[in-house]
Write a structure and sequence with these properties.
It is a single chain. With 344 residues, the chain is an alpha/beta fold. 38% of the residues lie in helices and 15% in strands. The strands form 2 sheets. The chain has a 6-stranded mixed sheet. It has a 4-stranded parallel sheet with strand order 5-4-3-6, sandwiched between helices. β7, α6 and β8 form a beta-alpha-beta unit. The longest helix is centred in the last third of the chain and has 20 residues. Bound molecules: 4'-deoxy-4'-aminopyridoxal-5'-phosphate. Its cofactor is pyridoxal 5'-phosphate. Pathway: Amino-acid biosynthesis; L-cysteine biosynthesis; L-cysteine from L-homocysteine and L-serine: step 1/2.
Length: 344
């Protein structure tokens, strides 16, 4: 019989699937790494597992301890499912702008959720940051993973995501494209692929090129942190989980282009994924197009792997909702009309 003892043992080992429709006209092979197939539904399961195991090994997290983290989404789910297995309590802090659905998901996994007001400055005692710091200080046996500064985030990708891509492409990957949030994915995966391909002959693809995708306005692509709607990526500060020397190139993508590609992935590729996935694929395809225009031979040999961090179910009322899309001008008035609309 083949089975796992617990769902948390099934983190990682996600498959690659070739994109065949959105890549029309491109000669490069573009492969998507489908991270929503992780048990918690996102790439963040990987860092959750590694951060917890490392904290246990260092003694920062002891039996019966409590994990305290300001998170509203994917990292919380990953931490909650690993914590459940190991008997830790989880207390997550999220601002009140986070949807009820997202808080309910965390509670469903058994986590406690503390909600803080969004409309206060970061140094206010009721802010998201102040409350999580205070809880981490006051709760006996508390440990705060701090995904933005925890070196085990990028390390998890160096040990799992990178080697999986190398193995599944038989060492033929030439480019990797990933969105940048905390920077953990691109730093760890990119560093591994750089290291493993450092001496690969040019004829076999040379050193892997690491491409970061960033929302237009975020600091990674030179923005001032101005707001954008794609979730989970981009920052208004430089987290230490990100090593800016790893990406060879950063491509900025607008919300409109990210969301348009996200919808195409669902409709044309059967991949119901989140907005940061559309952003990363858009960047990958732009890169492939540029390469094809400048060096057709290299493009024909290119094997471009793009990481899709999470699934689309959490975005049904936004990216996949025509009225929401129209309210931001991302969809023309007559786009997305259904037979029902026409008959009405
Ligand atoms: N997309 C989504 C939906 C995410 O939640 C994250 C994590 N913040 C990312 C992309 C980016 O990953 P990383 O933090 O490793 O840069």
């Amino acid at each position: 019989m083949k089975y796992a003892e617990h769902i948390s043992e099934l983190v990682g080992g996600t498959p690659l699937v070739r994109l065949s429709s959105v890549t029309e006209g491109l000669t490069a092979t573009v492969l998507a790494k489908v991270e929503y197939l992780n048990p918690g539904g996102s790439v963040k399961d990987r860092i959750a597992l590694k951060m917890i195991e490392a904290a246990e090994a260092s003694g920062e997290l002891r039996p019966g301890g409590t994990i305290v983290e300001p998170t509203s989404g994917n990292t919380g789910v990953g931490l909650a499912l690993v914590a459940q297995r190991k008997g830790y309590r989880c207390v997550f802090v999220c601002p009140d702008k986070v949807s009820q659905d997202k808080r309910d998901v965390l509670r469903a996994y058994g986590a406690e959720v503390v909600v803080t007001p969004t409309a206060v400055p970061p140094d206010h005692p009721d802010s998201y940051y102040s409350v999580s710091d205070r809880l981490a200080r006051e709760i006996e046996g508390a440990w705060k993973p701090n995904q933005y500064a925890n070196a085990n985030g990028p390390a998890s990708h160096y040990e799992s995501t990178g080697p999986e891509i190398w193995a599944d492409t038989d060492g033929r990957v030439t480019h990797v494209v990933a969105g940048v949030g905390t920077g953990g994915t691109i730093t760890g995966t990119g560093r591994f692929l750089h290291d493993v391909s450092a001496d690969r002959p040019e004829a076999d693809g040379g050193r892997v090129v690491v491409v970061g995708a960033d929302p237009l306005g975020s600091v990674y692509s030179g923005g001032d942190g101005r707001p954008y709607l794609v979730e989970g990526v981009g920052e208004d500060f430089w987290p230490s989980a990100y090593d800016p020397s790893v990406p060879d190139r950063i491509i900025a993508v607008s919300d409109a282009d990210s969301f348009a590609m996200t919808r195409r992935l669902a409709r044309e590729e059967g991949l119901l994924v989140g907005g940061s996935c559309g952003m990363a694929v858009e960047a990958a395809l732009r890169f492939a197009r540029e390469l094809q225009d400048s060096d057709p031979d290299a493009a024909a040999r290119a094997v471009i792997v793009v990481i899709l961090p999470d699934g689309g179910r959490g975005y049904l009322s936004k990216i996949f909702n025509d009225s929401w899309m129209r309210s931001y001008g991302f969809l023309g008035a007559d786009e997305g009309a259904t037979v029902g609309d026409v008959l009405r």
